[in-house]
Design goal:
- By secondary structure, the chain is mainly alpha-helical.
- The chain has three domains: about 1-60; about 80-195; about 215-280, Methane Monooxygenase Hydroxylase, Chain G, domain 1.
- The chain contains nine helices and no strands.
- α6 (about 175-195) packs antiparallel against α7 (about 200-230) and α7 (about 200-230) runs antiparallel to α8 (about 235-250).
Length: about 290
């Protein structure tokens, strides 16, 4: 479009110079330049439509093998074991592509597709039209799909929690850190509802909770240190107490107890400073002189 605009401008001035002896030479020059710009705009529109159509066709082709089987499963008419076998092969292929991409959204989509397959297989097993050998094949397919389903749900939870936790670490404000970390914790807890005994999920959940607790404690400790540096001793003590509250609530255990003891020592030191300053201030007279004790 930039080249077309430049060409239209050059054509405009060229025709203006050619028709300068005519009356109103800018009219034919402007008309010719407008035609050039219009042709360029139409060509750009056609190219953009072609690219969108090509991308749409590519996406539909890449997902057509499993979508057709998934639609039949959802409709409850897929009673043929050969159709289930074709759907299983497509699902396994799509699963391998998802592992290569390692995208949280794709893994969650695979989990949903596995659920559709299992639902369709259950309907086929309940149908009296399914033969005995077909039932054996369906149950074997269900076992493989359940393994894929678990794999993709755990991978979704792990990738989502890792991404959101990293994002939370980059946040500056405390509420943004906690909000983003809670989103990561929600992903893990969603997977825990399905697989409550999965140790990997429990470890990840504890790590995220530890991060939230550490962020809160570090926030209040920093505020306390700033207040103490500026001489606001009572405010610093209050901030340290808030830090102790989150420690006692969110971090039980040896590590939390050690941090609580350190904060308690800081509080005692601040109280001693506060008492010392109070004694000094009470010993001063109204004129600012220190009273002599008898």
């Amino acid at each position: 479009m930039i080249a077309a605009a430049a060409a239209a401008g050059a054509l405009f001035f060229l025709l203006w110079w050619v028709f300068q002896e005519e009356e109103n030479p800018w009219i034919p020059a402007g008309f010719a330049a407008s035609v050039v710009l219009l042709i360029a705009a139409l060509a750009r529109l056609m190219v953009a439509r072609r690219d969108r159509a090509r991308l749409r066709d590519h996406n539909s082709v890449s997902r057509e093998p499993y979508n057709s089987s998934s639609d039949r499963l959802a409709s409850g008419t897929m009673y043929s074991t050969s159709l289930h076998a074709a759907a299983l092969r497509s699902l396994q292929k799509y699963s391998a592509e998802a592992d290569a991409k390692d995208s949280a959204d794709v893994h969650r989509e695979l989990y949903d597709l596995c659920a559709e397959y299992l639902a369709g297989a259950d309907k086929a097993l309940q149908s009296p039209r399914t033969q005995a050998d077909g039932r054996v094949a369906l149950r074997a397919g269900q076992e493989r799909v359940r393994e894929l389903q678990k794999h993709h749900l755990l991978t979704w939870a792990r990738v989502s929690a890792r991404t959101l936790t990293h994002e939370a670490q980059q946040r500056v404000r405390l509420y943004e850190k906690v909000e983003t970390a809670n989103r990561a914790l929600n992903c893990i807890e969603t997977a825990l509802k399905v697989y409550p005994d999965e140790e990997e999920l429990n470890v990840s959940a504890r790590a995220v909770r530890e991060f939230i607790s550490s962020s809160r404690v570090a926030h209040w400790v920093e505020l306390a240190e700033r207040a103490a540096f500026k001489g606001y001793l009572q405010r610093a003590i209050d901030c340290y107490r808030d830090a102790l509250f989150y420690l006692s609530r969110d971090r039980p255990g040896p590590a939390g107890e050690a941090a609580a003891e350190k904060i308690s020592r800081e509080i005692e030191m601040l109280r001693a400073r506060l008492d010392t300053e109070g004694t000094i201030n009470s010993g001063k007279g109204t004129n600012g002189r220190v009273r002599r004790r008898p």
